[in-house]
Design a protein that fits this description.
This protein is an alpha/beta fold. The chain has twelve helices and 14 strands. The strands form four sheets. The protein has a seven-stranded parallel β-sheet with strand order 5-2-1-6-7-8-12, sandwiched between helices. It has a three-stranded mixed β-sheet with strand order 9-11-13. Strand 7, helix 5 and strand 8 form a beta-alpha-beta unit. The chain starts with a strand and ends with a helix.
Length: 346
């Protein structure tokens, strides 16, 4: 039986990874500082992790070392981090501190106490300036925004620890992840969560640009299967976690509307107002450029997943229709249970 440390264990992905490993009989050490994680994510039909998660920040040097001190941690999944793009742009120091310094804190303890494998949750957002599709792992234009730059930098430290100390590290570059427990209540939810929430409340969703922009998505269960498969690989590696398919905003909205039995036409807003809930980005001597917002809204993403197939024998199993159906069922149950309180947060 392996012992696995999962950071960000109360988040969307971390909690479901914990549940999958618990079902497999593995011993878990779970931490989260609950800045983004939620207690609701820790409740599953046949198990609750609510009393098992240690409230801890990955930057806590003494606290994190205490988790490793017995020398019995086999694997580390560093899922913790600040992911929302506008949050990272608004407070870049915090984003860098958590996503980079926190990762290095974990790497250093993993090195000292001899774990078998370190897996970093990275992102396809670092391909934001790429023009070759589908995009492969080995060559791409460097990113611009704060969030993808923090993950790109974290990957470089992972590579450094591998090259310098001989550690085994895999960076998983997630496409847009969706599935049950995706956060529909935060200030700027992921697109899929946002459209489901607005349809649930019979509200008109506001999209940006013309809705024809295309992104690739990966269902959370498919991601977790690959996250487990990479544990036995050696050396340093970066792997796209992608369905190798993409969908437009309008296509996704049409599928969700049909599943939910709704017929609400969406409105479309000007690009300049994309992050208007973050007024700090529009203030100061140098406010955020409209062309940066336009690029982020309209960027095309499609990641090549052939490397994951060739090396790990992995390929996605859940298609968009089935994945959205599962997500919608779970999110509607959550919103039903929260009642009017959820609407106040949206």
């Amino acid at each position: 039986m392996s012992k696995v440390l999962i950071t960000g264990a109360a988040g969307f992905i971390g909690s479901q990874l914990a549940y999958r490993l618990w079902k497999a009989g593995e011993q878990l050490v779970l931490i989260d500082n609950f800045s983004y994680g939620k207690q609701d994510n820790l409740e599953f039909p046949d198990h609750s992790f609510a009393d098992e998660v240690i409230r801890m920040d990955i930057r806590d040097r003494k606290g994190v070392e205490s988790l490793f001190a017995n020398g019995d941690i086999d694997y580390v999944y560093n899922i913790a981090g600040i992911a929302p793009l506008p949050d990272c742009q608004t407070d870049p120091q915090e984003a860098i501190d958590v996503n980079v310094t926190g990762t290095v804190n974990l790497l250093e303890n993993a090195r000292k106490y001899g774990i078998k494998k370190f897996i970093l949750a990275s992102t396809n957002a670092m391909y934001e300036n790429e023009t070759v599709f589908p995009t492969k792992e080995n060559s791409f234009a460097l990113p611009t925004l704060i969030y993808p730059n923090t993950k790109y930098t974290a990957e470089r430290f992972c590579e450094s620890y591998c090259r310098t100390y001989g550690m085994n590290v895999t960076c998983l570059r997630f496409s847009n992840v969706y599935g049950p427990h995706v956060d529909c209540l935060r200030k700027q939810p992921p697109f899929v969560a946002y459209m489901v929430r607005e349809l649930y409340y019979d509200r008109t969703p506001i999209f940006h640009s013309d809705g024809n922009q295309r992104r690739d998505y990966i269902y959370v269960d498919d991601l977790i299967r690959l996250a487990i498969l990479v544990r036995d690989s050696e050396g340093f590696d970066c792997v796209n976690v992608s369905s190798n398919k993409n969908y437009s905003v309008n296509e996704m909205y049409a599928i969700a509307s049909r599943i939910m039995g709704k017929n609400i036409a969406a409105d479309y807003a000007d690009d300049a107002h994309y992050w208007e809930k973050y007024p700090a980005l529009y203030s100061g001597k140098y406010p955020i450029k409209t062309q940066i917002l336009t690029h982020e809204i309209n960027k095309y993403s499609l990641c090549d997943n052939s490397y994951a197939k060739e090396k790990y024998g992995w390929e996605p199993e859940v298609d968009m229709e089935e994945g959205l159906k599962r997500l919608i069922e779970a999110e509607c149950r959550l919103l039903d249970s929260l009642g009017s309180n959820a609407d106040k947060n949206s």
